[in-house]
């Protein structure tokens, strides 16, 4: 396989794909063109990882969406947040109770004047903002009141506030687009049962 | 069964300004009509509101029997057609302003449920006013209708676009008792029946009062327009009862097994008796007893062995079920004023007679629009919140090919071949103004 000429392999791809790759990646070497061309030609894989939109802003692959926001911090915002993160050792395990968060990160930018907040989560983000506002308002407000202009989690403006700082991802890949946090939990429980069964069997 | 609660405490809400329909329970049996009107001339629209205002009763003494009443609500297009000032129009929430058809993606109204397949006039920009008449007898229904039609007469700038009669004896076209589970609105003075849970903050249901978040939800301006009003979500469904009957017949051998499967799908026997209290066989007396029909919270049934996690009533009101996703069940409650139309089809009939029958889903509340959008995407057309993956609501979802319903047990039973048993025919988002707002709207120029 590997000694077949990549140019020849590329020529074997459908013409429509070759044209697309050639025009978008005119300056790329043939190895990259071939890699991208082969990926585009794999319809099943392409369909599985198709990127759609996660409500108003953000990209979604299958069930999993991304949210990236860069927000201006108040003067003592970074210091307060650092205290909080060091108290919990950067550990946000409590966030597990939300049940839709795959991961999230907080990064200080530009000399502690801005907060980068990035997360991967299931579904669309705004249906559950109302639930955060009544279930974990203190936590949400403690975290985000360090952001300049934070209207408060119970404010009717909160969704628009977040959207205003959200930067949609141009590229978004999820290894298992159909695997929600809840489904992963279920598979882990099932696997534990299977492992116990196998142990007991022997 | 009487669906009336008693007024037990002095109400603290401004009941004499709130429309009766918010708190007044549907009678049994009930008769009535939903009409959709278009305003082609703003002055005529205001004149109609002026004429109809005396026919819209308030929620004061909502527990006193009343032979008939009228409810009135306006779509965003209706408010525009009335010539409401821009500042006021802009104070309404974005999803209300967009209208139901424009929100089809969020509502998961696709395929056969998509707006392009809706009945006229739904999905057009001509749906402006919804008038509903509820009555407890045919005669009172006719009298109320005659009075309303009298007001409509001679108003060239208002067109009647559709007129749909409804009526039933408290059982829907599938044969299930319905309409009896409602949240208790704090400040309404309503008694709490066993299983109701705590009263829910009034601001969840009426604009201008504190909601569950501790503050009022946004109120449209000016205050006289928004306060004491609420939102209404109207969705008309056609019910495929023969397909439902066939599904039961195909998947259960005896009548007893069919009725058990029918109960597992809904979470209640057709009598209204909940599986939570009658897991093995129907106990019709439970369905007749308002103090017992809702006296359960699933706390003793985390795996859904009695009431399946995916059953219709457990999805729509999970009560104490531990959900997989952080959710506040107290902000997802809606006041349900749904009505059935057409003749029920008995369980023995397996052939579709092509007659019109179904359900007008009607939800009221300050969050009604947000909540129906939430319910449609999170609790109806997904199973993720209950740990059920892509499994959907067995009664009101849009099912994909190859869908199934899981009945938990040892072993669990996966009942294949479930279809969409209800197809959306159309709907709209409305604002139900207070009595003083109706007067205010009629006086604008």
Description of the molecule:
The complex is a heterodimer of chains A (202) and B (445). With 202 residues, chain A is an alpha+beta fold. Chain A folds into 2 domains: 1-41, no CATH class; 51-165, Alpha-Beta Plaits. Chain A has helices spanning 6-11, 15-24, 30-41, 43-48, 77-87, 129-135, 137-144, 158-165, 181-201, and strands at residues 51-53, 59-61, 64-72, 101-109, 114-122. Chain A has a 5-stranded antiparallel sheet with strand order 1-2-3-5-4, covered by helices on one side. The radius of gyration of chain A is 22 Å and the shape is globular. With 445 residues, chain B is α+β, with helices and mostly antiparallel strands. Chain B has 13 helices and 11 strands. The mean pLDDT of chain B is 96.
Element layout with pairings:
The complex is a heterodimer of chains A (202) and B (445).
Chain A: H1 6-11, H2 15-24, H3 30-41, H4 43-48, E1 51-53, E2 59-61, E3 64-72, H5 77-87, E4 101-109, E5 114-122, H6 129-135, H7 137-144, H8 158-165, H9 181-201
Antiparallel strand pairs in A: 1-2, 2-3, 3-5, 4-5
Helix pairs in contact in A: 2-3
Chain B: E1 30-39, H1 42-52, E2 68-74, H2 76-81, H3 86-89, H4 94-98, H5 104-107, E3 129-135, H6 138-152, E4 158-168, H7 223-226, E5 230-239, H8 241-251, H9 255-266, H10 284-287, H11 312-316, E6 335-336, E7 339-341, E8 358-365, H12 368-380, E9 404-407, E10 413-416, E11 422-432, H13 435-443
Helix pairs in contact in B: 1-13
